[in-house]
Specification:
The chain is an alpha/beta fold. 27% of the residues lie in helices and 23% in strands.
Amino acid sequence: MKALVFHGPGKRSWADVPDPAIQDPGDAIVRIDAVTICGTDLHILKGDVPAVEPGRILGHEAVGTVRQTGASVTTVRPGDRVLISCISACGRCRFCRQAQYGQCLGGGGWILGHRADGVQAEYARVPFADTSTHVLPEQVTDETALMLADILPTSYEVGVLNGEVTPGDVVVVVGAGPIGLAAILTARLFSPSRVIAVDPAPQRREMAAHHGAHLTLEPACGVVDRIAGLTDGLGADVAIEAVGIPDTFELCTRLIRPGGRVANVGVHGRPATLHLEDLWIRNVKITTGLVDTSSTPTLLRMVAAEQLDVGGFVTHRFGLPEMQEAYDVFGRPEESGALKVALFAS
């Protein structure tokens, strides 16, 4: 079969690799019908995730059809159309029993495209299939379901829930890429008084407004003063960092009021300065996190019921063999205008 193979920082290929096979009774082999590329994949290619070794098949967001299951798999069967979660869960360890699947001690967590071969391929082996896949209702399309593999639960859990968004809050989302847009969309579920998106790209600010931002700002416009002016000089209740660079994290810490919350979602490859000399006295709360995907069933029900609209998140579509072109487009959003790309099997 063909797959997208990582060969070290800056190097990748769409190459022939062996077909996956059942290795454990809990595995499933899934034919990939639709797949997308994550910003984390770009971080891997930049060398920001050194745990990913050369030769690894990348990707952790896909929809597919089950072709084969191991002897112990009971909740999915060949022919089922399934969402493959970006997080795998053994379902038995201490953290899985607390629904903290991202911290799984039993061989799960973020493994696809990280410590095990991923899903940017024609076929994939999915470990812990019973607890790491979701059978999809007919009314949810493959393209829509892709948004549930990572970006919706990540933004909701690591951004909105960790940020403790409550009714009436002023919420600032720094970065209006796919994660930021999903944070805007899901923050609106809690009736904040205002959601403000900050991004330098006009196209992304326009998309942020489309998905529910009450106000969009570019970083160069004096964002700290603008938000202070909108909040009686206090600052935002919640700032969600959705980029993953030092400047945006540090900006978030300047945007919040005393007692405010910073929820970091972005994947950081470089150190950021934590200005405790300013923050210690202001009662601020800073959270980080890897998504657990414990919210995926809830979000899936909401999408199926048309209570969450992710239309417009995918801006570019390709065939699966066009993987290299899709990476080039996704990796140059300032030129291509790409948000999410989707690739489909023929």
